[in-house]
Amino acid sequence: MKHVLVVDGANVVGSRPDGWWRDRAGAAARLHGRLAVADTTYDEIVLVLEGQAKGGVPRGRDAHLRTVHASKDGDADIARETAAARAQGHTVVVITADRALQMRVEGLGARTMSPGWLLDLLGS
User: Which of 12, 17, 18, 74 is geometrically suited to a Cys-Cys bond with 50, CB 3.0 to 4.6 A?
Assistant: First the structure.
């Protein structure tokens, strides 16, 4: 059984007022870089990006980190990634502050944690 962390990129980037709105692609790239080198117990990290943030990181796998470009809104892709991992028997933690999304993925059997929890884990 793998431990999978699914990250709502827009929610994490938007949780700190550091000027991310001026350069969404750059903010996504910085988050990706931090996740790529993070020392965690997760076997796989899935970073879901939407909108302009997709321009900062190509979709695909980078070692244990996989970037997904949302086709519309990230919530549907986050739920899809969660459902797929749960169907394979993996434990899943979703990082988001979106209450509706939290309820949706918890209904699929995932746990949820806040963007602040992730940023603390990353050391910021």
Answer: 74
* Amino acid at position 69, single letter: H
d(CA 58, CA 74): 16
Total-model pTM: 0.96
**pLDDT tens track for 28-50:** 999 999 999 998 999 999 999 99
Q: What token pair was written down for 91?
A: 């434990």
Structural domains of the chain ordered from first start: 3-121 (3.40.50)
Exposure of 120 by Cβ count < 10 A (0-12 exposed, 13-18 middle, 19+ buried)?
exposed
